# Entry
Amino acid sequence: MENSRRRSLLPSFLYSPTSSFTPKTLSVPENPNVANKSFLIPAPSEPGKIEMYSPQFYAACTFGGILSCGLTHMAVTPLDLVKCNMQIDPAKYKSISSGFGVLLKEQGARGFFRGWVPTLLGYSAQGACKFGFYEFFKKYYSDLAGAENAVKYKTLIYLAGSASAEVIADIALCPFEAVKVRVQTQPGFARGLSDGMPKFVRAEGTMGLYKGLVPLWGRQIPYTMMKFASFETIVELIYKHAVPKPKNECSKPMQLGISFAGGYIAGVFCAIVSHPADNLVSFLNNAKGATVGDAVKKMGVLGLFTRGLPLRIVMIGTLTGAQWGIYDAFKVFVGLPTTGGAPPVAPADSEVAKV
# Structure
């Protein structure tokens, strides 16, 4: 009954145990004693399970990424709004508390969620690409490395997979991020995405939406590499040293709690590594015709590293922890194992993906 209710809430491709589009090369060998040359983990036989590394698996990871990034970024829009304004106008927005006070006085309570639509859509698109392509590239690079090297150089695989995924994810995010920053830091520019996007394009052209792409890569690629590699490492260490039993014997709530804790710790590192580029993105998207040199001259090198950092640590730590919690909760919901706590790819002779 419970499985039926779950399946009724999801598109069939997310839980169908087999697919007509699955390549023959991904099939499980009939003789279990013969080593399979691929790293595919055969699908569990129970209904409702998803075959690892199948099209359904990547679709589920993509949808989980949409939920984890879109919802969490929208939820912290007030913090993001204050952070962006502290970066652009520190004389007016001197601190977190005074920043909220200024916004409340000038724009009312509704002003705290200005720009939520481009935030939701932009980070949903980014999350889809970030998590979906990360799972794809992690498997792809593990296959290239081979079974032994995939375990030996797993951190490099995490770093390469996350960097590759983020290059694609930022192309999807960039136009929405440009409009979001302009709406949030220039009151009166536009109400939101529907009028802000056309106005932005009329002023700076379609390519103007991508003028912040390189700084965005500079911010997001190190951020995502840190986010995924440190998360995987932290979770593995928690299961190895802090949990008295193997991961597959832990309850689902315990596994999800570990995912949140690992995500929060990883988020602190992410915020520190990516903060200078975050200041650049806010500056360039706020000022027409501005350059990186202009930003460095106005903010100073120290300012690039420190302006708005405490608030961003709180925001990104909470955000990253929540993202991993939501992402892994969705994976558990559709019958997949949580992320981390094991080598990037299971050995070829594994019979079933352990949840």
